[in-house]
Specification:
- The protein is mostly beta strands.
- Among the domains are: 201-240 and 505-568, no CATH class; 251-375, Sandwich (Immunoglobulin-like), CATH 2.60.40; 384-495, Immunoglobulin-like (Sandwich), CATH 2.60.40.
- It is 5% helix and 42% strand.
- The strands form twelve sheets. Strands 1, 2, 3, 50, 51, 52 and 55 form a seven-stranded mixed beta sheet that branches.
């Protein structure tokens, strides 16, 4: 409460013998000054202590001792407080009624539970009923083609929950259904009309220009659009993936510029852009690359580690993109070193979200990768190179790559461009890739060995084995670039290979209705010309009803190693029913739950009531107390049961009185507190209202204050040397307990007479 501790009086007694003269001994008359001063020999007047003075006369005189109780002027905090009564209340907000006839399959709430938007309240006919904020209750089932304000409300709820329905409007589209599908998956809904799992079988058929390998068939299993609880639709096998719904309004995340150049030791601000800005905080996946070496502060401090840039926290991924922000800036901080190295690169790319199991919040923009070149300034070293062909690399088939191994006499600190020439019976363009006029390759930094590959061509012409010889060529400036050793040539023999062998990647994949699957057909060698590949479609699913029409033929492009056959399934399983979302002003607290699990309910039956989630603390004041309190006053609320106390302020006050049952007047108000009280509805509280507070106030005991002849408040001040008393008029302020505030009249050094007894 801010009160200072009570100061107890000190009983310090002094006595003297007084000649027998009769009458009552009084200060200032029967004691000489020397006798009075003698009474101080063993007495120290200490500020803040209470002292009792006692004087006794001759024992035979019959006079009783005179005792003077004194106190020094002190300082402490005083509060003028008013105590009011109050109670804890929760106001009832609304009643939730059943939106249709059905059975309550699960109740996940109890009286007193606090419910927030997004919480599952109960299940009706096996479908979760989820709390959602909105303007009105849903009243009909919704599907593709539905139009109206209820569709607009549904799309707003989905969008605010992070499920993208496309344009938020009155029309239910495939984009709406895709968002609703992801929402229902997350909440464990089953499909609206469960169907048996259906299959599509894709099989390769032999034809001219290619051979069919052993893996020639793939099965696509079409499950419900919204899986049953505990069941997850995932791709099970390489070469196929679910293709998500796309919409033009999705946020595109990109880079402000695609190229930048800095010197070691410089810092670069990397600006990422969003168009349009996301409406909610969004996680963005980033990918980092390049040949520059990153490290943390510990790596930078280690002289044995070559660190080109600080990667912590720069390369944290995902990052959280703030809602409504159009740009986010990252900082690339580079360091100087003494390593001889070529200019290095650092890249940052925006990568797409995983499309399986949820909606897409963003797409990479067309400009989605920034490449930063970090220039080096260390003087170059001159390495020596040699070339060999390893065992096993000396003979290859058409379409494979010829591999040559190049070694250096040291580990390079920078990349070096090395010139070479190609000779032999193999013909450029016809048998291997076309080369530059002065071909070269880059020997990488940090290595003392690398391989150089030359891609050979797959053709249909029967021809003898051919040779391809690579020879290293001197540098244009040997003193600055590199030198050559004794072994600088190597030969690879190219054997003829005819038709490619085609296989299907993976054997089985599952997909939800409405999803798409890419069936990958792979060739062991890239064909030299386009190939028309035949395939057969079978299974229990019906073409045109369960999936889009497939022609039975796909073109395999020349030079490609694989091609994807897109199978698009058709979705007829996701709908919205009114009980899926319970509309109210959430969060709210459950008042009473009226139904049990297994109970059958009819349309309009009360399911539960809602109350305010937090207690309202209501104060009560009579007319006199109402005149002393005001909005904003600080209060302390004490719960009478449980010994709980919280601080708060008065935020509402009635101007008009309520007439009680007894005919009296009562005013009510509301107190907002900073903490919580563990209590039940209707619990009583005591409210201490701080009407006034004085910090470090000058105070004297209330017993020392009296009214002088003119009616002014006064105190008696005693002189520490002469023991003479004088009356001093004072101006008083507030009182608390046994102390009164002194506004003027004293300077704080005085000793005050509290009481005089005896004599």
């Amino acid at each position: 409460m801010g009160r200072s501790p009570r100061r107890e009086p000190h009983d310090v007694r002094r006595s003297r013998r007084v000649p027998e003269r009769g009458g009552r001994l009084r200060w200032g008359r029967l004691m000489s000054r020397s006798q009075i001063m003698g009474a101080f020999v063993a007495l120290a007047i200490v500020a803040g202590l209470v002292i009792v003075w006692q004087v006794t006369g001759e024992e035979k005189s019959g006079d009783s001792p005179i005792e003077i109780l004194t106190d020094s002027v002190g300082r402490q905090t005083l509060r003028d407080e008013l105590t009011l009564n109050g109670e804890l209340r929760r106001d009832e907000l609304s009643t939730i009624n059943s939106p249709f006839d059905g059975r309550v399959s699960q109740v996940g709430i109890a009286d007193g539970d606090e419910i927030a938007a997004g919480d599952v309240i109960l299940s009706l006919d096996g479908r979760p009923a989820v709390a959602a904020n909105g303007d009105f209750s849903f009243y009909r089932a919704l599907d593709v083609g539905s139009d109206g304000p209820d569709v607009l409300q549904l799309e707003r709820i989905l969008s605010e929950a992070g499920y993208d329905p496309g344009n938020v409007d009155r029309l239910y589209t495939e984009a709406t259904r895709a968002a609703l599908r992801n929402w229902q998956i997350d909440y464990g809904y089953g499909g609206a009309t469960p169907e048996p799992e259906e299959t599509i079988i894709i099989s390769l058929q032999p034809s001219n220009g290619y051979q069919v390998g052993d893996k020639d068939t793939k099965a696509i299993l079409i499950g419900p659009s919204v899986p049953i609880p505990g069941d997850t639709l995932v791709a099970s096998g390489g070469g196929a993936g679910i293709i998500p719904f796309q919409d033009d309004s999705i946020t595109a995340i990109g880079v402000q510029s695609t190229e930048a150049t800095i010197t070691e030791g410089d810092t670069l601000n990397v600006v990422l852009t969003a168009n349009p800005a996301p409406v909610v905080d969004t996680q963005i996946q980033l990918a980092f690359g390049g040949d520059a070496t990153g490290g943390d502060l510990d790596d930078v401090a280690d002289p044995n580690i070559d660190v080109d840039y600080l990667d912590d926290p720069l390369e944290d991924s995902p990052i959280v993109w703030p809602a409504n922000a159009t740009t986010v800036t990252l900082t690339l901080e580079t360091f100087t070193d003494t390593v001889d190295e070529e200019d290095e690169t650092w890249t940052i790319s925006i990568t797409p979200e995983q499309p399986i199991g949820g909606g897409i919040n963003y797409d990479p923009a067309p400009l989605n990768t920034l490449t930063v070149t970090i220039e080096d300034a260390t003087p170059d070293e001159v390495p020596t190179f040699e070339l060999t062909v390893e065992a096993g690399d000396d003979e290859i088939d058409e379409g494979e790559v010829a591999t040559y191994t190049v070694t250096a006499d040291r580990e390079l600190g920078r990349p070096v461009e090395v010139r070479y020439s190609l000779t032999g019976t193999a013909t450029e363009v016809d048998d291997y890739d076309e080369q530059d006029t002065d071909p070269s390759f880059v020997f990488p930094a940090g290595a003392d060995e690398t391989t150089v590959t030359i891609a050979t061509a797959q053709d249909t012409t029967i021809e003898p084995t051919e040779s391809l010889t690579m020879t290293l060529q001197p540098s244009d400036d040997p003193t600055d670039e590199y030198l050559l050793g004794s072994s600088i040539s190597g030969t690879v023999r190219i054997q003829d290979e005819d038709e490619p062998e085609l296989t299907i990647v993976g054997s089985e994949v599952r997909v939800a209705e409405g999803g798409a699957v890419a069936v990958t057909i792979r060739a062991d060698e890239a064909p030299s010309s386009d190939i028309s590949v035949n395939y057969q479609v079978g299974g229990t699913a019906t073409m045109g009803a369960d999936y889009s029409v497939l022609t039975g033929t796909i073109t395999f492009p020349a030079g490609a190693r694989q091609v994807d056959l897109l199978v698009q399934t058709l979705d007829d399983d996701v709908i919205f029913v009114p009980s899926d979302m319970i509309i109210a002003d959430w969060p709210a607290r459950v008042g009473t739950v009226f139904v049990d699990e297994g109970e059958t309910v009819q349309l309009g039956k009360e399911l539960l009531t809602l109350t305010e989630p937090n207690f309202t603390i209501t104060l009560f004041a009579n007319p006199t107390d109402r005149s002393e309190i005001a909005l904003g006053q600080v209060v302390t609320v004490e719960l009478e049961a449980g010994d709980q106390e919280v601080e708060g302020r008065i935020v509402e006050l009635d101007d008009a009185a309520i007439i009680t049952d007894s005919g009296g007047e009562r005013y009510e108000g509301v107190v907002d507190v900073t903490g919580e009280l563990a209590a039940v509805d209707g619990a009583t509280v005591r409210i201490e209202v701080v009407l006034d507070e004085r910090i470090d106030a000058m105070v004297v005991p209330r017993a020392a204050v009296f009214q002088d002849a003119t009616g002014n408040p006064s105190v008696r001040v005693i002189d520490a040397e002469t023991l003479e008393q004088r009356v001093v008029a004072i101006e008083t302020g507030i009182q608390e307990g046994s102390y009164t505030e002194v506004l003027s009249g004293l300077d704080g050094s005085e000793i005050i007479v509290v009481d005089v007894t005896g004599g």
